[in-house]
Write a structure and sequence with these properties.
33% of the residues lie in helices and 21% in strands. With 612 residues, it is an alpha+beta fold.
């Protein structure tokens, strides 16, 4: 019998490894940027075409590589950072497993130009699908120039599953932002399809955060810093008023590496619970420095999940640090005991005699006396008690009920609740219950309608139709609102602008990721336009929708939630009927667009059971 187990060729092994390391163009960007940082670069340029499908190029001014190092870098598990097993627990740099470059070269066409400062001439390599096609000397500046072309050209199935250009570009920007925020001393520039989209000059930590997330955060950041034997923590937290409902700016960095850590995030958000409404999330940018041997960064291929040895103590430190910072900057309500109007608390004197309290009474007062007599000046108030019972008598006549039945409130007949009574045999009466639900009678029983959800369903259909037919009516603003986006949000605006304007917004680009809102949809009278546009863009980024119809539905739903009536809103009879009529004219009147129940019916059998 022939042997069936054999070793895989390196080219196939590299492609298998690429499935973990290179998931999309953003994965390539992350690996190349981290390599440039490890090389000591002070200026890094990122160039892409077609959202990374055609070209991903990273140019740095780092220390470069020799001819031998440049060739060895594309071999599996070739690294300059690990020599013994103990080195795994003392890592201070980013890439270390030696899988990134060989994995990238196995699924793309790579061109590398690199030169060290001490060399007069550099090295030029061309590798296609793990095969070395060319190696020669060349003239080039100090540093490295990686050009990754036609990613997944030899794995069509992987290329087919790439998302739209908008989504892939957004993911690339996200990786760039994360790396830029933890390396403020390095200058970054981003060129998309031969246009420079953004540039982050070298700066301090706070200025880099503001450059990335927007100038609006300049006055919203509170500095935090603490140093313990377990960890050194510094960074910034956002003021409570800067909290967002969706896609809040929440970043953790450990030893210069971005990470996701829901457990630590809960430590910070718990300190905000009494300060922000339910459903909103605070912003924070936290940098942790710990001893490398107390964390494990190699538990996930993308190295965004990190295991900590001292998780619980760090959780407590983060929670205490956040509460202290919020209290220090008067974000937590406090009592001031140093005011001039403070209560004067007397000192207890043990030798003083206690004084019996005196009670003054008028023995001649009689509350049941109808007229004043003698020395008394009091008299029984003259109330017309009989007039208070007139309403109950009228209701009893209307209902025709016996004295032992529960009376119905004045002005509301029993037919209003449980029968379809009509003035002209065509108008059904509806009753608004606690300014939250609409009650109306149907053949099968009593129907209850959630007024806010019903209005959301109605507005969603209306806004979606306006977007598709491009007939939204815009109302010009007397004073245009200025709205500023982060780099990743601004990159999405050109792809959302047509639909945003179709619903009635009028936006003009002011440059530097800033837009002016010159007009808003006529239906949005009492809505903050800047907050709404922010939520619409954030929702589109969060869902990562690629289909045009899904993006349009996301925009319409955001607007419907913002413009719908709130609970507690008193409706007139005409408004109530209008909501019910329009709701049942909808193609889907039972549920909101995001799947929440609108209508509930209590049938006659269940109603009868309650009176047995």
């Amino acid at each position: 019998m022939n042997d069936i187990i054999h070793l895989l060729p390196d080219s196939i092994a590299n492609q298998i490894a690429a499935g973990e390391v290179v998931q999309r163009p953003a994965s390539v960007v992350k690996e190349l940027l981290e390599n440039a940082i490890d090389a000591g670069a002070t200026s890094i340029q990122l160039i892409i075409k077609d959202a990374g499908r055609t070209l991903i190029q990273v140019i740095d001014n780092g220390k470069g590589m020799s001819t031998t190092d440049a060739r060895l870098a594309f071999e599996r598990h070739a690294t300059s950072k690990i020599r013994t097993a103990e080195d795994l627990f003392a890592l201070q740099t980013m890439g270390f497993r030696g899988e990134a470059l060989p994995s990238i070269a196995s699924v793309s066409q790579v061109e590398l130009k690199t030169r060290r400062h001490e060399d007069e001439i550099g090295t030029h390599l061309i590798i296609s699908g793990s095969v070395l096609e060319k190696q020669e000397e060349t003239a080039c500046p100090v540093g490295s120039n990686f050009a990754i072309k036609n990613i997944f050209f030899n794995v069509p199935a992987r290329r087919k599953f790439l998302k739209s250009n908008e989504t892939e570009r957004k993911n690339i920007l996200t990786e760039l932002e994360r790396i830029a925020m933890v390396n403020p001393e390095i200058e970054f520039s981003f060129i998309d399809n031969e246009i420079e989209v953004l540039r982050y000059p070298a700066s301090n930590q706070k200025q880099r955060i503001i450059n990335v997330v927007g100038k609006s955060f300049n006055q919203q950041l509170i500095a935090v810093e603490i140093e313990t034997s377990i960890a050194k923590i510094h960074g910034f937290i956002g003021k409570p008023e800067s909290a967002r409902k969706a896609r809040a700016m929440q970043y953790f960095f450990v030893n210069g590496r971005y990470m996701r850590h829901p457990y630590f995030a809960k430590a910070i958000t718990s300190a905000y619970e009494p300060l922000i409404p339910t459903g909103e999330n605070p912003n924070f940018f936290i940098y942790l420095e710990v001893t490398p041997d107390t964390i494990d960064v190699n538990i996930h291929p993308t190295k965004t999940e990190i295991k900590f040895e001292n998780e619980q103590p760090i959780w407590q430190i983060l929670a205490a640090m956040t509460k202290e910072a919020l209290g220090k900057f008067n974000e937590v309500p406090s009592i001031d005991f140093d005011t001039e109007d403070a209560i004067d608390i007397p000192i207890h004197d043990r030798t003083a005699q206690a004084i019996r309290p005196q009670v003054n009474i008028n023995p001649s007062y009689n509350p049941f006396k109808t007229q004043s007599s003698g020395n008394s000046s009091y008299s029984r108030p003259n109330f017309d008690w009989e007039s208070l019972y007139k309403g109950f008598e009228d209701d009893a006549k209307i209902s025709g009920s016996a004295g032992d039945e529960t009376p119905i409130p004045s002005g509301l007949s029993s037919g209003t609740l449980f029968e379809e009574q009509s003035v002209d045999d065509s108008t059904t009466l509806h009753y608004q219950y606690k300014n939250k639900y609409i009650l109306t009678s149907v053949k099968s029983g009593l129907m209850m309608i959630d007024q806010r959800r019903a209005h959301i369903r109605i507005l969603f259909d209306q806004f979606l139709q306006n977007i598709k037919q491009k007939r939204g009516i815009s109302q010009r603003s007397l004073f245009p609102e200025i709205i500023e986006f982060s780099a990743s949000e601004a990159a999405m605006i050109p792809y959302l602008l047509e639909d945003i304007e179709a619903v009635g917004f009028d936006l003009s680009n002011l440059g530097n990721n800033t837009y002016a809102i010159n007009g808003v949809p006529s239906e949005l009278d009492k809505v903050n336009p800047t907050e709404l546009v922010h939520n619409m863009v954030s929702k589109s980024l969060e869902t990562g929708s690629d289909v045009k119809e899904e993006i349009q539905e996301s925009l319409a739903l955001s607007m419907a939630y913002a413009a719908a009536i709130t609970y507690g809103h008193k409706l007139t009879a005409e408004e109530t009927s209008n909501i019910v009529d329009k709701l049942f004219a909808s193609s889907s009147h039972k549920y909101t667009p995001d799947g929440k129940l609108i209508i509930s019916v209590m049938d006659d059998i269940e109603i009868d059971k309650r009176f047995r």
